[in-house]
Amino acid sequence: MSAERARVTVFDTTLRDGEQSPGCSMNHQEKLRLAHQLDRLGVDVIEAGFPIASDGDFEAVKAIAAVVRRPIIAGLARACHPDIERAWEALKHAAHPRIHVFLATSDIHLQYKLRITRDQCVTQARDAVRFAKSLCDDVEFSPEDATRTDPEFLCRVLDAVVEAGATTLNIPDTVGYTVPAEFGELIATIRKRVKGIEKVTISAHCHNDLGMAVANALAAVAAGARQVECTINGIGERAGNASLEEIVMAMRTRPDRYPYETGVATEQIFAASQMLSEITGVAVQPNKAIIGRNAFAHEAGIHQDGMLKNPLTYEIMTPKSVGVPDSKLVLGKHSGRHALGMRCEQLGYQFDRRALDDIYRRFVRLADKIKHVEDHHLLELIRDTHKPAASATPLIEPIPAEQAAAVNVPTPSVPVPEPEPARPFPVVSATNAFGLPLPVHADPHHEQTQQEDYLWGV
Ligand SMILES: [Mn+2]
């Protein structure tokens, strides 16, 4: 069965596109740590950075290339010689290097950002890929803003770069504008029209501005793309990139609809997610699919009862399959007796029906006051209920809400760093897109490295 499934390459760009998002800068050691975890996770390609963006980025790409030897290590470059040379300098000792060249192709970018004609765009893309190819066998090309590019012209650019030696054509929905059916059609058009397309891999790079990044990436795969670009926790520019964990688990949970294989060791997903949150200090939203704190939590009584009888009732994948230790039954006011009884048993107390009813009534009253009843509350309640003068004892004092919330955060060993203050977006000058890095207006409050000034890419 698995032999029939097509293999999809997982290209992780957490360290490049992800790192470009506000508040997600990482230092050298942190990037290395995360790169090792991405290796354990089994991604096929790690885009380690944008070497010309800063010396820090250059050094990080170089260091990752030196020590992470299994996956392909990619470095981003604009379609110009200085960028490509710098990327190659950082990558050349990698076991499997890839130069990723990008150039915008939409009229709006050509006219207002690059100030070049379509013909100039084709020439520049071809020359850049040819130069990259002279240094490195593995060359990926991205027509930035592809989804807002005239498809006719897009195919013309892709023809030129395939001829120049590109081995992967990545189709970026840079601004998160496309929708699944449209994106699938675009991929199908490219497959039909671009000369030599059968020799290259088509890739999708989707952004989540309309909440459709993962759906768009999956639509691209269904239409023939065989590489997906994604990030851990879906971090990335603006609303983020397609989330690696969602794409991979969609394929794993619905092989009937997505009969594709990846090399991802899904049990490493949770660890990767936790590590990234810890490093950046950017928490994952509690209801985030796959790796949010509540993704495997069941509070409603009827759900809890079903879960205890058979997890398949409400669980389409197991927490274990993504590396979450166990699904959490959150005890709250919607919980039922069965769940309460089970938790009491796990805490070492077995009660007959009447005793459990008694505890249950007190439990519901307490849960009304404090949202989540933690084990220590429950223990207090049990002791209270069963001491001799129980009936005369008032219910335990509800703890203040903020204290209860603090107790409830399930990250015991990880100190939560101060959130970084929001920084204004630096304004990038529109001149000279082809020579040296663009000058950037200094932000007096901007203490990080210059990488964040490169707030554009594919
Ligand atoms: Mn991007």
UniProtKB/TrEMBL annotation:
CDD domains membership: DRE_TIM_IPMS
Enzyme Commission number(s): 2.3.3.13
Protein name from the UniProt record: 2-isopropylmalate synthase
Positions of the Pyruvate carboxyltransferase domain: 8-270
Residue ranges of coiled coil: none
Taxonomic lineage from the root: Bacteria, Pseudomonadati, Acidobacteriota, Terriglobia, Terriglobales
Pathway noted in the entry: Amino-acid biosynthesis; L-leucine biosynthesis; L-leucine from 3-methyl-2-oxobutanoate: step 1/4
InterPro entries reported for this sequence: 2-IPM_HCS-like (IPR050073), AIPM/Hcit_synth_CS (IPR002034), Aldolase_TIM (IPR013785), LeuA/HCS_post-cat (IPR054691), LeuA_bact_synth (IPR005671), PYR_CT (IPR000891)
GO terms, molecular function: 2-isopropylmalate synthase activity; metal ion binding
One BP annotation, GO: L-leucine biosynthetic process
Pfam families in alphabetical order: HCS_D2, HMGL-like
Family label: Belongs to the alpha-IPM synthase/homocitrate synthase family. LeuA type 1 subfamily.
Keywords: Acyltransferase, Amino-acid biosynthesis, Branched-chain amino acid biosynthesis, Leucine biosynthesis, Manganese, Metal-binding, Transferase
